[in-house]
Structures are given as structure tokens and as C-alpha cells.
Specification:
The complex is a heterodimer of chains A (79) and B (111). By secondary structure, chain A is of the alpha+beta class. Helices cover 28% and strands 25% of the residues of chain A. Chain A has a 3-stranded mixed sheet with strand order 1-2-3. The N and C termini of chain A lie far apart (37 Å). Classes of the chains: A alpha+beta (79), B alpha+beta (111).
């Protein structure tokens, strides 16, 4: 199973509208991605909470349709 | 096993053991690169931990995801608290934060 990176980005932005999303297809197979997500909504939240927000945005696709998504999250500088 | 029994089992494990890693495979033979990466980080720090192989029990494999509200395995618990999965543990290991946190929780190191 695989998923387009544009679809990952769309789902994240749908749930976290101000998110800046950078996605890298690690193997070029549409199945192993690394995503860097920056949003003001992450400010004051733990890493676990930030990642949980992204996983929720992906509506259960993480671990099923999406095999591997290495996540790095953070709030923008100065927020 | 029903969900409550699985949750009770998970709760018991993380309460009884200071450092618990729910993983695929065992610390000696991890069956997934992400689990292996977390085992590597913990081993480098020399921390004692209990590895629990979720592959041997489908109810545990699903149950731990619901329990932590986290969609993937591995999952690291320290002092009964969910620390994160592979990405977070790796980030914390590289920044030195993992060692600081383990020290603060007073976990035991192997000799």
C-alpha cells in the first residue's frame, strides 16, 4: 500500500491549517516518507502531543495505508 | 483477551518496570528497523529495560496502540509515562535529552 505525498500534505493542512509541511520520499517508493511539520499550534505542546496531532490529521492512515512516516515537528521560531 | 484485560496488562508492565519498550521482536533480535533503532539508543546509554514483543500477541499489538493513542510500534515508556516512538526517542537520544530524562527518573544502568 502506498500514499501520495500530496495527499499526506493535504490531510495535515486540513487539520492544521497554518502548518508548513515538507515531505521527502525517502526511497522513492511512495511508502517511506519523512515529514517536517511546523505550526504555531504546536507551541507549548510536548513532542508526543505534536505527533499525535499529526497522526490524528492522517485519520488512521498511519500504520495502515502509510507504512513509514518519520516525523519531526515544531513551533515556528519565536512563537 | 478483551481490551480491559489488555490495558490492565500494559498498565502493570509500565508500573512494575522503570523502562519498558513495546517493540517488534526482542532486544536481541529486533524484527523491525524502527524497533532496532530504539534498542540501539537504549543500549548505547547502557540502560536496563524490558522489551515486550508485540508480535507474539495480536491483542497486545493493537491494545498498546490504543492505550498510548499512538499508531505505531515501537513505544517507549519510562517511569510509567509514554515517551514516544522511534523518531522522538532518536531525537532525544541525539540531543542528550534522553539521558537527562533517564537520570532524572533515576533509572538503573547495567554494570
Amino acid at each position: 500500500m502506498a500514499m501520495e505525498s500530496s495527499e499526506i500534505e493535504r490531510l495535515i493542512k486540513q487539520a492544521i491549517p497554518d502548518a508548513r509541511v515538507t515531505i521527502e520520499d525517502l526511497r522513492g517508493d511512495g511508502d517511506h516518507y519523512a515529514a517536517h511539520v511546523v505550526s504555531a499550534e504546536f507551541a507549548g505542546k510536548s513532542r508526543v502531543q505534536q505527533h499525535q496531532m499529526v497522526y490524528r490529521a492522517l485519520q488512521g492512515k498511519m500504520g495502515t495505508a502509510l507504512h513509514a512516516l518519520a516525523l519531526q515537528t515544531g513551533a515556528p521560531e519565536g512563537s | 483477551m478483551d481490551e480491559n484485560a489488555t490495558f490492565a496488562q500494559i498498565r502493570r508492565e509500565i508500573e512494575d518496570n522503570p523502562v519498558v519498550l513495546f517493540m517488534k521482536g526482542t532486544p536481541v533480535f529486533p524484527q523491525c528497523g524502527f524497533s532496532a533503532a530504539v534498542v540501539h539508543a537504549l543500549s548505547q546509554l547502557g540502560v536496563k529495560f524490558k522489551g515486550i514483543d508485540v508480535l507474539v500477541d495480536p491483542s497486545l499489538r493493537d491494545g498498546v496502540k490504543q492505550f498510548s493513542q499512538w499508531p505505531t510500534v515501537p513505544q517507549l515508556y519510562v517511569g510509567g509515562e509514554f515517551v514516544g516512538g522511534c523518531d522522538i526517542v532518536r531525537e532525544m537520544y541525539e540531543s542528550g535529552e534522553l539521558k537527562t530524562m533517564l537520570d532524572e527518573k533515576g533509572v538503573e544502568y547495567a554494570d
